[in-house]
Design brief:
This protein is α+β, with helices and mostly antiparallel strands and 144 residues long. It has one domain. The chain has helices at 7-13, 25-32, 94-103, and strands at 3-6, 37-39, 44-47, 51-59, 62-70, 81-84, 108-113, 116-121, 126-130, 133-140. The strands form two sheets. The chain has an eight-stranded antiparallel β-sheet with strand order 2-3-4-5-10-9-8-7, with helices on one face. It has a two-stranded parallel sheet with strand order 1-6. Strand 3 and strand 4 form a beta hairpin. The protein is globular.
Length: 144
C-alpha cells in the first residue's frame, strides 16, 4: 500500500515521514520502497514526478539525506507514494499561496534572494517564487 503525503501538512510541520539528516537511502527504501529513478551513484532518488531526495556521502560509504526538492509542480505520486497537492501547482502565485498558508495557520518568513522571493514556512520548508509564481519547494536537512 502506498504512503500518503499531504503537502499542506508538509508545509506546516516539515515532516516528511520523519526523515532527517541521518536518513540513508536504505531508510527511505524501507519506508517508501524503491525510488522510481536513481541517478548519480544512488545519491539522487526520485519518487513520482517531482519529489527528489538528494544524499551526500559525508562519511564514505554512508550517504545521508541533505535535501528534499520539488520543482515539477504539482508533484505527481507513484506506486509507492500518493500526493495530495493542496494548492501547490504550476499556477500557484505568491499571493494565493501566502493567503492559503496564513489561513491554514502556517507561519511564513520572507527572504529576498537573487533568484526571487523565498518564503520559509514554520515547518522549515522553503518556497521559492520566480515572477510571482511558485517555482520550487524544498527542505534543506543540513539546517537541522
Amino acid at each position: 500500500m502506498p504512503k500518503h503525503l499531504d503537502l499542506c501538512d508538509l508545509l506546516t510541520t516539515g515532516d516528511f515521514f520523519a526523515f532527517d539528516n541521518t536518513t540513508t537511502p536504505d531508510d527511505v527504501n524501507a519506508v517508501l520502497g524503491p525510488p522510481d529513478c536513481v541517478r548519480e551513484d544512488n545519491l539522487l532518488c526520485m519518487y513520482g514526478n517531482g519529489i527528489e531526495l538528494t544524499f551526500f556521502d559525508f562519511d564514505p560509504g554512508y550517504p545521508t539525506l541533505i535535501l528534499l526538492r520539488c520543482d515539477d509542480l504539482p508533484p505527481a505520486g507513484s506506486v509507492s507514494l500518493t500526493i495530495e497537492p493542496w494548492i501547490i501547482s504550476e499556477n500557484a502565485t505568491l499571493e494565493t499561496l501566502t493567503t492559503a498558508c496564513r489561513a491554514a495557520g502556517i507561519g511564513l518568513t520572507r527572504r529576498e534572494t537573487r533568484h526571487g522571493i523565498r518564503w520559509r514556512t514554520s515547518g522549515g520548508v522553503d518556497l521559492t517564487f520566480e515572477d510571482s509564481r511558485l517555482a520550487t519547494f524544498m527542505i534543506n536537512y543540513l539546517n537541522e
